[in-house]
Each structure stands twice: as C-alpha cells, then as structure tokens.
Amino acid sequence: MGDRMNFIGNLGPLIDGKTGEVHEGGALKSRIRRRAAELAVEGILGGDRVALAYGNSPELLIDLLALWERHACAIPLDPGLPASEVERVLQHAEARMLLSPGRTQRLRDSSRREAGEALILYTSGTTALPKGIVHTFEGLASKFRALTENIEAASWKTVLCLLPMHFGHGLICNCLWPWLASRGLVLFPSNDLEVFSRLGEAVDRYRADFFSTVPSIWRWVLHTGAAAPRMKTLKRVHCASAPLDEPLWEQANAWTAGAPVVNVYGTTETAGWIAGTAPGERPEDGSVGGGWGCEFQVREAREGVGEVWARTDALMKGYLGRPEMTAAVLRAGWYRTGDLGRLDDRGRLHLRGRLDDVINKAGLKIYPDDVEEVLKQCAGVADVCVFGEPHPLFGEEVAAAVVLKGDALSRVQSWCDGKLAGFKIPRKWYPLKEIPRNERGKVSRRRVLELCRG
Amino acid sequence: MESMEDRLKKIVRSVFNLGPSGSLDGLVYKDHPRWDSLGHIQLILSLEKEFRVKFSSEDVVSVRTLEDIASLLRKKGGQAS
After folding, report:
1. Going by DSSP bridges, is the β-strand pair A103-106/A97-100 parallel, antiparallel, or unpaired?
2. Between helices A409-416 and A368-376, what is the axis angle to 10°?
3. Residue numbers of the domain that contains B68
4. What's the CATH class of domain A359-452?
5. Strands, E assignment, A229-379
6. pLDDT at position B20
7. Which of B35, B38, B58, B61 to substitute to test the interface with A, most A CBs within 10 Å?
8. Per-residue pLDDT tens for A277-332?
9. Which of A193, A408, A425 is closest, CB to CB, to B61?
10. A220 touches A252 (CB < 8 A)
C-alpha cells in the first residue's frame, strides 16, 4: 500500500460526507505536490516537525501528504484542544510550523530534525510532560502492508470515516490505509451525532463497503433507533479502541445485516490495529482474534492471564523526549501494552482489562494524573482523585472526588473550562472530607470509586 | 409542583455542571464548551430518565437550544409536560 517514497502514487478520491463534494485522486495528487512546493519555499526540510490543526477534512490529508513528500513529520492535533495544551505540544515537539484552515503560523526558524519520522500522535498534552508517540515512514509502510495482508479488502471501493482523524485508529487505519490504496474515502465531521443518527442513509448514499467504529457509536446508534442501511453494500465493519461486549456485538451484527462486525485490537503505540477476529466469528467478550502482522506473548500470567506484550514492525520509535517512559514499555523489540489478556491454544488473544487506571471514555483515553495535575492548580481544591466511573453509553465517564478549600464546587468546575479539553473535564463530582490513602500515602482509585458510589 | 421548564433547567445545570445559579442564557448545542456531542448524549440520557420519554434519532439532532427541548417535551406529553 505504499512505501516511504511513494505514498501518493495510488490515491483514491476524497468525498465530503456532508456536501457530497468529490476531490478526485489525480487532482489531489497535483494539489499535494503544489502544497509540498509551497512548504519547500517556506523552508520545510526533511525531518522538520509541522503541526496540523484541522478537523476531519481533505486539507488535513493534503497537508499531511505534502509534508511526507518533503520527508517532514506531521503532528495532527485535535482542533478542540485548549490553547494552553496546543502551546505545550508545539513547544514539546519543537514544531517549526502550525498549519490550520487558511492559516500558516511560523513558530521557529529551525528545529531539531530527525530523519525518518513521519507522524507524532499526542495522546496527552495536558501536563508538563506531554506524551507524543513517534512513528516512522518505515513503520507506517509496514502497517499498511500488514493490514493489506490480513484484511480482505480487494473488492472495496468506498470507505466512510466517522472517527477523529487526529488519532491513530481514525487516521492511520480507517483513512490512510484504504485511501492510499485507491479506495474512495468519505470524510464526516468526527463524532457527529447527526451522522450517527443517519448512518444507514450515509452507507446507502455512498454505497459504502466499510467503516470503523468505537463501541459507544454502536450504543448510540442502537439507543436512538437509527435506521439500518437498506442496500447491501457493506462488506465489513470494524470496532476498536474500547471493549466491545457480546450483546452489543450481536446487536451491531444485526444492524449491519450480513456485513460482519469485526472486533479489533490496537494501540496508538502500534499505529493502530494489530489483531482482529475472523469475519463471522461468534461474538465473545474480550475476544480480539489473531495478530495482524503482530506476535503476542502473555507474560507473568496467573491462571493464563497476564500482561500482553506485542511485537510488530509497525511499533512506535518511542515517546518523544521521554527516554525513561519509552524504556519502560519497549524491551528488545517487544511492547508492553498494559492490557491484561490470555492466549488460547490457537494463539488468539482474549483481553481481560487494563493494568493501569487510564480512563476510556467513548474510545478516548484520559490519564487521571493529567486531570489531577490541572485540578491541583485550582486554589479551591485541597486534594483530588480522578477516576473512571462506569457509564452506560461511553463505557466510562471521568469522575473526580475533591476536597474543597472553601470554594464552591461550581467555581472549581468552571475553572476547568479552557484548561482541559472538553472530554477530559470530569462530569461527575464527589465532594469528600478527605481522599482515602493507604499507609504509604498512595491513593487507590478503585477504592475512591467504591466510596463515591456508595 | 415543579414545572417542566424548571425540571429541564435543573437537569441542564446538573449535566453541564453549571451550579444552581449558573446562567442558562444563550446556551446552544456546540456553542458552549460543555455542550459538545458527548455532553449532548449525556443530556439526552438524563432527560429520558427524568421525563420517562424516548427520543428518536431525528429528535436527538433536531434540538439545539433549551427552547427546542422544552417544545419537544411538550409534544411528547405524558410525564414530560
């Protein structure tokens, strides 16, 4: 599906899902080359890092590939991030430029340049030490090859994207992989409820063969009774980024009427999808199938369940500027995922939860430490513990137990606006007299959750 | 007995953490930092529970203001009004 030197050789058309406007692959190739020439005039060199703050739009993909034509590195950002977080990420990445709709912002005349870096995906920029996951051209080319070898997509013509394009799942797997291999790509605004409510119509309108999802999209589509497609164009649907339980999987399969819903496993560190169930496989909680260009080991297992380690050529180079954090998860070519699971006798993976406290809200990952660090800066907060609370649609919701220092809770809540991205702001608040700690002063988020929920 | 409008305001304040006296003036879906798509989902779920109504996929995308919601709840009748 393309190597480092020729990602744009076989582009499919891009279609605006809302308006139906079509950008043909040939014209896109010309636009990308023109844009690459403009970036050259701006002084962008191989290895330079450039941030892209677009929503889901053709411009994001055009600028990203124009940067790749220059062998420069793209940093796609969530356009909904607060300014303070964007600033922190730009500083951390030493980005030379920030490109956004109709705007080119030069940030520095020169920057650290690392040959071979293609993409940096920030999973957190809230704290003083943002977490930027670096992928190389070679790694991404390897990812595209692995997906082509493992997913039966030869007959696909058109793919829909409903997911945010600044994340690995949406960008690398749902968009770039099929689009760079000549499939038409229909772009919708990310997480748009209007799109979800008319998903069946969208599938029919564009005669879509494929789209990927997160479980909360299915919960919403099914909860609101959104009509299923009437035509039988769909060939396959993926679901990833959060656990898909058996009843939801069954219902999603019924909605797609014959197109198998495949439960897929991947992380941003592995450039997205690394395993998936076989089409038509019987739904089962935690089952994510066999590896796609990836080997798995389960280490330190008790009764067969232990931490999942993954080895793939598409593995990240590391966390930008965080060698200790990188060394903690990359060992001799293996990546420790932090997920718990077991391998069955056919080498297929079954996930059983997480080792850490990362909150998974509708497929978006939130680090409690990041939210706590921001809240601790609020004068009205004496102590805080942030944790994930079960939610019927999102899987988990961000909750905060707070010890107030005189301030009203509503003032603490207002204080978060503009300092945290909307999805990271706690929606459930529990004022406490104190946050329980163990004898070593450590907080158990699980214990706080139990205490708050009575 | 509390009016439907007051119950609606109470839920909106609770879902968006606006505090008991927080202003609801000019609150419009997608124009307020807390009323994003995830906030909208939470609001719809809370309204369904409080008023014992069910919103269709079309209802969900037709409401953008508190007035729109109040009008929809009146149409739904029953415990909503």
Report:
1. antiparallel
2. 120
3. 4-80
4. alpha beta
5. 236-239, 261-267, 272-276, 287-291, 294-302, 305-312, 318-319, 330-331, 334-343, 349-354, 359-361, 364-366
6. 78
7. B38
8. 999 899 999 999 999 999 999 999 999 999 999 999 999 999 999 999 999 999 99
9. A193
10. no
User: Rg of the Cα trace of chain B?
Assistant: 12
Q: How far apart are CA A88 and CA A147, in angstroms?
A: 34
Assigned architecture for domain A14-353: 3-Layer(aba) Sandwich (3.40)
End-to-end CA distance of chain A: 53
Question: What is the predicted pLDDT for the residue at A15?
Answer: 98
Domain ranges of chain A: 14-353, 359-452
Question: Of the candidates B17, B33, B55, which has its C-beta nearest A427's C-beta?
Answer: B17
Write the ipTM.
0.87
**Strand spans (E) along A102-232:** 103-106, 117-124, 131-136, 158-161, 184-187, 210-213
Based on the structure, what is the number of domains in chain B? 1
Give the residue from chain B lying closest to A410, CA to CA.
B19
d(CA A353, CA A401): 23
Tens digit of pLDDT for each residue in A5-41?
589 999 999 999 999 999 999 999 999 999 999 999 9
